[in-house]
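Example for tutorial group B:
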């Protein structure tokens, strides 16, 4: 049903705002317009001023609803909130240039209405952004009045700055305030529709959710859950979701995981665990949730309604805790956390890729509210699995190999069903036995590692084949590997492994760690056996690399190792020596090797022989370290699984 006040004609802002109040419902996304969209609107306004047209320019569509129980003249904004919000910001910034006598009427129409103390903003945003919008964006622009905690807050503030700058530029160029105001009020035309809040709004909700600027899956889910609460008359739960969702978005903001792809990934991991969705279905969390919360089914009787309300409440609770662990993992929010978890969280964060193990991570930390030795051990096993299977060189042909199995283990473990998947024979491993869910998970993860990254394959991954085109310099796991090696060499010193996540522009020469080649091509003797093919091979081997402070690396980066060694050990000009144990160890070993090669300096093969020996000895140290650091021999089922694998191989060979 179309409201008598609105219809299929272009309406101007003064009419739209006359005696009206607008609210953005909490099922709507936050403010999403970025610089591009704001500048496009300003460009349209600018063109209208230049053209001097007298007719109304179609600017957009507003879909409004009249929910039950609201005052006359108050509308909820179903569609058009981004443009409407931006125009209200525009009016707030235009206000600063208006004559004092015009302000009372202008404010009452576009910004704030009512008696002092009981007045309200003409446009109220959803609960996530309302306070920031009214105190900062419509105020003096100072975030001290309400700190920006969400991306939507930052976008609102950016829009305010863009519009303010645009107005200053126009007015300083000779455009009058009256011309600008006249354009906004007389030439921007909107189509406005106001259906009753029921069936029509529900249909529009679905259409609007899937057009315009794309919503993340998480935004769609919030909209749908609150829409379900409206249909189920679950007013208390609706209010709780509003509050909890602010916490969810705040924690994701702390984790710096707020892009649409980040939010969709977060939802994917959560639905995979909570609703036991497989890898494929979990990619369509919004669609799957609609199937699980089918309103046609749940509305049939009170029992179904109560079950649906409980299901919604349980899922939102899961999302809330999952977001908190996101903040702990990615945002270093350690309040109330067992200190023993901090090192393993740092390791997982530093790996830089967690897509395959994230459902398992969430299942572990959410299932166990209080950490214990077993949980910490299993998180350590996750770190080993992630490195051996998804970070080590050439372990899998695709970066999501085996992901479906890991998602399955996560949901089965979380719902206490993983042990039920084991046969009686499988539960008995020699003198060991699988007695609980943690045993079952540990066994399956060890089994997974041996399937995709068996010990010998893992060891061989650090050795470059002569004809291989690979280059360890481009290995994504190199910096993580070398930081862990550094931690092993300095066990009594806290090594911030996650420091490798810094980009060069974020770090300083004093603390940024770069990859150093030991091989110096300028020193090669092209007339010797050190030909270009050999040169390229030796340069690409793992043993050719160490981490080094950028301040030392940029000094004589193309010099030979003989020239660099004194700088590493004693410093260079005003730069102190290296703080890295791996560099000191390499330098001391190199000095010993140079002494043993002293008599061969005049031979054509000196350079190649020396660096080849350096590479080989360094490579061996790295491999020995890797075998120890990422070993799974201490975990449940390892011996039995290796034994079974060897027996199966023997049968196959026969």
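The residue assignment follows.
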């Amino acid at each position: 049903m179309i409201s008598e006040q609105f219809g299929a004609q272009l309406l101007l802002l003064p009419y739209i705002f006359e005696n009206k109040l607008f609210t953005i419902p909490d099922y709507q996304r936050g403010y999403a317009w970025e610089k591009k969209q704001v500048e496009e609107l300003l460009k349209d306004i600018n063109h209208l001023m230049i053209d001097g047209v007298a007719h109304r320019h179609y600017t957009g569509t507003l879909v409004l609803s009249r929910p039950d129980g609201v005052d006359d003249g108050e509308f909820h904004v179903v569609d058009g909130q981004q443009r409407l919000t931006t125009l209200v910001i525009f009016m707030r910034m235009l206000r600063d240039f208006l004559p004092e006598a015009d302000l009372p009427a202008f404010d009452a129409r576009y910004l704030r209405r009512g008696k002092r103390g009981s007045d309200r903003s003409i446009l109220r945003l959803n609960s996530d952004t309302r306070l920031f919008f009214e105190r900062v964006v419509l105020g003096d622009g100072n975030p001290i009045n309400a700190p920006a905690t969400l991306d939507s807050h930052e976008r609102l503030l950016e829009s305010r700055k863009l519009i303010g700058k645009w107005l200053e530029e126009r007015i300083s160029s000779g455009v009058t305030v009256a011309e600008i105001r006249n354009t906004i009020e007389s030439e921007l035309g909107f189509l406005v529709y106001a259906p009753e809040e029921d069936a029509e709004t529900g249909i529009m909700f679905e259409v609007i959710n899937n057009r315009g600027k794309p919503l993340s899956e998480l935004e769609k889910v919030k909209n749908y859950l609150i829409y379900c609460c409206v249909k189920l008359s679950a007013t208390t739960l609706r209010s709780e979701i509003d509050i909890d969702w602010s916490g969810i978005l705040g924690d994701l903001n702390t984790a710096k995981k707020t892009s649409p792809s980040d939010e969709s990934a977060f939802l994917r991991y959560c639905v995979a665990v909570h609703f036991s969705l497989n890898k494929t279905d979990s990619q369509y969390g919004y669609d799957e949730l609609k199937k699980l919360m089918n309103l046609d089914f749940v509305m049939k009787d009170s029992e179904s309604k109560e079950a649906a309300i409980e299901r919604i409440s349980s899922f939102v609770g899961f999302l809330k805790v999952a977001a908190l662990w996101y903040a702990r993992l990615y945002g270093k929010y350690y309040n109330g956390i067992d200190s023993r978890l901090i090192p393993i969280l740092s390791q997982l964060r530093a790996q830089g890729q967690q897509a395959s193990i994230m459902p398992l991570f969430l299942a572990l930390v959410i299932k166990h509210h209080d950490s214990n030795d077993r949980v910490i051990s299993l998180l350590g096993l996750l770190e080993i699995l992630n490195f051996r299977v998804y970070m080590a060189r050439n372990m899998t042909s695709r970066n999501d190999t085996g992901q479906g199995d890991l998602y399955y283990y996560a949901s089965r473990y979380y719902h206490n069903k993983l042990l039920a998947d084991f046969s009686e024979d499988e539960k008995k491993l020699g003198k060991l036995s699988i007695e609980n869910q943690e045993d079952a998970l540990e066994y399956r993860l060890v089994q997974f590692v041996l399937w995709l990254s068996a010990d010998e394959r893992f060891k061989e991954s650090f050795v470059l084949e002569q004809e291989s085109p690979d280059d360890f310099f481009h290995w994504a796991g190199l910096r993580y590997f070398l930081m862990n090696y550094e931690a092993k060499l300095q066990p009594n010193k806290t090594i911030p492994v996650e420091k490798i996540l810094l980009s060069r522009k974020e770090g300083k020469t004093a603390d940024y760690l770069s990859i150093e080649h030991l091989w110096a091509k300028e020193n090669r003797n092209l007339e010797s056996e050190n030909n270009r093919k050999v040169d390229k091979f030796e340069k690409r081997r793992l043993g050719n690399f160490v981490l080094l402070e950028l301040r030392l690396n940029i000094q004589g980066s193309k010099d030979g190792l003989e020239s660099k060694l004194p700088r590493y050990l004693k410093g260079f000009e005003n730069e102190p020596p290296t703080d890295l144990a791996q560099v000191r160890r390499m330098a001391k070993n190199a000095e010993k090797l140079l002494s043993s090669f002293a008599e061969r300096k005049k031979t054509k093969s000196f350079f190649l022989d020396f660096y080849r020996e350096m590479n080989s000895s360094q490579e061996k140290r790295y491999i020995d370290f890797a075998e120890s650091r990422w070993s799974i021999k201490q975990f449940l089922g390892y011996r039995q699984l290796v034994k079974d694998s060897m027996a199966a191989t023997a049968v196959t060979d026969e």
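The two ends are 79 Å apart (CA to CA). Compare this with the pattern of hydrophobic and polar residues in the output above.
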